Amino acid sequence: EPEVTQTPSHQVTQMGQEVILRCVPISNHLYFYWYRQILGQKVEFLVSFYNNEISEKSEIFDDQFSVERPDGSNFTLKIRSTKLEDSAMYFCASSLREGGNQPQHFGDGTRLSIL
Amino acid sequence: GESVGLHLPTLSVQEGDNSIINCAYSNSASDYFIWYKQESGKGPQFIIDIRSNMDKRQGQRVTVLLNKTVKHLSLQIAATQPGDSAVYFCAENPGGNQFYFGTGTSLTVIP
Q: Which phi-psi region, left, alpha or beta, contains residue A51 (left: φ > 0; alpha: ψ -120 to 50)?
């Protein structure tokens, strides 16, 4: 069964450094998402992306965050200057059609630890 | 923000018994709901979905019930197996692309 893959599985970064999290969505999916889950808390929406544009973003997704689809298969989340509170699991998801009416399929996440 | 809550943070059941996991949602405009299963070290795995024009949907060993009157969602797992042990989340979509997740219920199956 096709799946969303994320790399790395664990990223350790010094505070203030830039980090890029990578995702390969399911190949025929058109809509892509990032969510995060701080330890012990809910899964929270960050951003959705379609047709090379951000289609929706939450309050969490401030100017320190950016997303990109650099080629036909990868989808990345960049945090420009990491803070301690950015430590969390980051999940990438994709859906075949617009996410509000379709299942979003998740990867296994990248655990980001900011020191 | 939206509020999606679960009634029970933990649930233990005997293997072979049926499990019922409950979820309350707050936005009456939500029209699409998903149950996800999350095993340790894994991402949320889609189990079953339901739209607001339905009140029941069945899958393989799972049934989702939706009561819009009281804004309540439940997941029933028949003949629970050890492999069902995981955290279960309900997620609601009131429009747009984002889902609002609950805090999760941890299901433990006792062999």
A: left
